[in-house]
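Quick question: what would this complex look like in 3D?
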Amino acid sequence: MFVLRPSSPLRTFQPERAPQPVEPIEITLLADIEAPAEPYIDPGLPVPEDYDVDIIRALLQDPFRIFIYWEVREESLAALTRYFSAEDATRFRTVLKLRDVEGGQEPLFEVGRRGRYWMMVFPDREYEFEIGVHSPAHGYIMLVRSNRVRTPRGTVSPVPPQEDRYRMSPPEFVQVMEASGFGAQQALGITVAAMPGAHAEAEPLTAALTKLPDAVRTAVLVAGAGGELTYQMIEELPEPLRSELLKLWFASGGQITAAGLMHYLPELLREAIEDERELIGDHVHPLHVAPRFFVGASENAAWPGQEFQLPALPQGRVPGSLSPVSSWTLKGM
Amino acid sequence: MEQGLLAIVLHAHLPFVRHPEYPEFLEEDWLFEAISETYIPLLSTFEGCALDGVPVRVTMGLTPPLCEMLADPLLQDRYLRHVNKLVELCEREIERTRDQWPLNETAKMYHRHFSRARDLFENRYHRNLLNGFRALQEAGAIDIITCGATHGFLPLIHRREARRAQIEVGRRNYIKHFGRQPQGMWLPECAYDYGLDELVRDAGIRFFFVDAHAIMFGTPQPRRGIYAPVILPSGVAAFARDVETSEQVWSSDIGYPGDPDYREFYRDLGFDADYEYIKPYLHSDGVRRNLGIKYYRVTGKVDLGQKQHYVPEWAVGKAAQHAGHFMFNRQAQARYLRSVLGRKPMIVSPYDAELFGHWWFEGPQFLNYLIRKIHFDQNEIRLATPLDYLNEYDDNQHQQISTSSWGAEGYYRVWINGENEWMYLHQHVAEDRMIELAREHPNADGLLRRALNQAARELLLAESSDWAFIITTATSVQYAKKRFRDHIHRFNRLYEMIKRNEIDERWLIEVESRDTIFQEIDYRVYQ
């Protein structure tokens, strides 16, 4: 859990197979074209497999994942080793370097000349990546460096407001969090709701919780029940959870830290069962990505198989009472 | 006594879909359906309120691609053709169902609906709905905000110059259509990354919207939670989405649109009718498709075949009931929040505009009732726009908000994942190349300038977040891939022509006539 590591085995770059180059099609604008008898699926015009450039870019996905792609030219790699003997040059390998700017780690991964890769990372850190060459005798030589990516914290800040008129005590901030839908118990309820087939029962959550390390499970149960996290509880958590929550604990106390832990809950559960799609199955959660224009395209209508159903408004909703489990989908993960 | 403010924000957006090379094109129907079902009903709702002296104060986000399509003569012609066929079909439906209650009432309702849309489109708005929205803004009824040029997902656009181009082209397009500087912006997908606010400020824009966790996870801790804007280091204000109200309308679990009396979206005449009868109203490929004439209601959790007949008057009654429920909840929410926060809360409820009318057929009626009820039935909440709030409260907490979006799970996953990751190499190289071209040609004119401007259009169209979104949601995947590839291909060909100084004017004319968006564009925005 939360181990700095590749998210999947390194894979060889396999660009999508582009259609054979074709000359642009002559068109007659607004012509009275006879429509085809069958629907025609236009694959689009060809795009290059590569661009003959030295490039590496890093793109954030969420607090725990960064996507990297790179492409370097053969001649660029050759240029790096041309000052070495022919025998030495053959021992250089192309590598991807991850630079954890604040954490100081700089692991190397052997890679191909072109590739794409998903890297598991920590929240609230800065990362950059390099492509270079490495040999046991001569070490590492950089060829190209990516942009720097800062991962979001994924939970509330440990920094309280400094201006007098916005200053507040930890209990007041807890009240603000709950009013805004970000309290610890709200986070738990939303996580349950986001699990497929879990709208009415907590069985999937229970099953996932059992796979958490004992210390994490204990802390989650305390926080989910509205309790505060103690220093000892946090000390026993794995990294980087421990470090992140300790910052919150020292600055804001156990109650806010409990909420912080729950903001990480979906990611913890995902890591625990190692299959995000099975657990947090809301591939596109309706609260975030709503039905849009494409639902109007007939080719997309769920007809006559899968049906979209919206159950009726629940009875007995108490106006103004901010339901602890109904109002928020955990965005932290 | 006033307890709080409610900001209804409707984000209207469609990707730029215009295919002059075909006599008809399936995806163009997205626009036509939205015109009949959403945009005209919303205009009518707002105009009706304004005529009755009811303050609307709704914020409308009209994205540049949507504005460009609404103002496009070809698409205007095609919309008329589309709605004419629907009116004709409705006439036949009235005859076909004359002995069947309540089908006949519903058929008459659709006839009125489409006939009225046609009449308003042609005679009131003179084929350009922007005329209606602009007039409402001029009358002080609504505030219209802008968006990124092609709804590009800004954090995944690599080069700062390319991000700036999205914002600046959007700003200029707003001025073209609405005759004034935009004050607010809908960040595409509410996607924020560090530094974007500086680009927004440089474009003279005062505020944008983010999802709730942008502020809740921002630094320092927000004193008023998500119920007051925060001021970013650049001086731009960020307003956060209220999840409580979003859910009441959006949610597939408890949202209003799922009420049994409302219209069932998936039971459509295009699939229900006898094939020979309906064939003249399908596209020339003859494939069954939704036509927007639906005779059934949600009913409940039953198979489509067991849906009950739609009764328009029941649905209208339910829309009124839900508007009252929504308002009552906001009153209670505002009272509670004011007691906690010590200031009138600003409850921000943003929605995709197309939800109202297209997806939730009764949505515009819900809004109509809501706006009127808020004005006539109570005095605890008031409809307001972000500008109203900023004019009323000029002391807001300063904060660095968190990276975020309103997409699934709150960050960028919808737009960068295993399905669409392949797109970004192409997009980023095109950004690099466009900036390179713009710098190499500081003051091009003639044919070269046209080629540079078209290259900028192709890049902007490739950057549209819709393609990655559609690929993720597995809806019109082939079309999305085609569009992305087409624009990247055209961009690359333009780049090579410009670099070799061998511009094929005949080919350029063809491309210019296809991808007509942003006739006002100036490629130097990439310098």
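Answer marked as accepted. The radius of gyration of chain B is 23 Å.
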